[in-house]
Amino acid sequence: MSLDCLTYSTTSAGLPFLLLPKEHLKHSSPKRVSLTLNPTHLPSEYRRGSNGTAFITNKRLVYIAEKHPDNDFQDFVLLFNANLHDFKMETPWFGANKFTVLFKPTMENAGLNHMYIWKGIFSFNEGGIADFSTQVGKAYNEWKYGQDGEQLPAYHE
Known about the structure:
Radius of gyration: 16 Å
Strand content: 35-45%
Order of helices and strands: EEEEEEEEEH
InterPro entries: WBP2-like
Distance between the termini: 59 Å
Organism: Saccharomycopsis crataegensis
Largest sheet: 9 strands, mixed
GO molecular function, one term: chromatin DNA binding
Shape: globular
CATH superfamily: Pleckstrin-homology domain (PH domain)/Phosphotyrosine-binding domain (PTB)
Number of domains: 1
Protein name: GRAM domain-containing protein
Structural class: mainly beta
Helix content: 10-25%
Low-confidence stretches: none
Number of strands: 9
């Protein structure tokens, strides 16, 4: 099942999905990242994808899981928009490092109940969380404030 409608196609950049207009890749995670999605008010209703890759673009966060019968979904897309409430990195002493994001689904037919705020937990089993967290923060701030990599002019006395 696809959550939030991802279009698959091998691009010239070697990505397994089509980029939106004026979209470019910022970062991709190592393999073996799992994603668990659950509504904040109903923790027992959850969806899980395992052993996938997360991609960060300048417009969205994309997760593609490996094909496996235990996975509840094949892919997940989270647009950087007003429905993205919060995100943070967690590095516990024991267990996998986690990147948590709170969001509200934007479409009724996206596979998630749009009436709830959802929590997405990306579990990094083989490292890479620090770079991932930094790149999500940069991409989100560039989207939110419209910087998109523009440099400030040099200061002259």
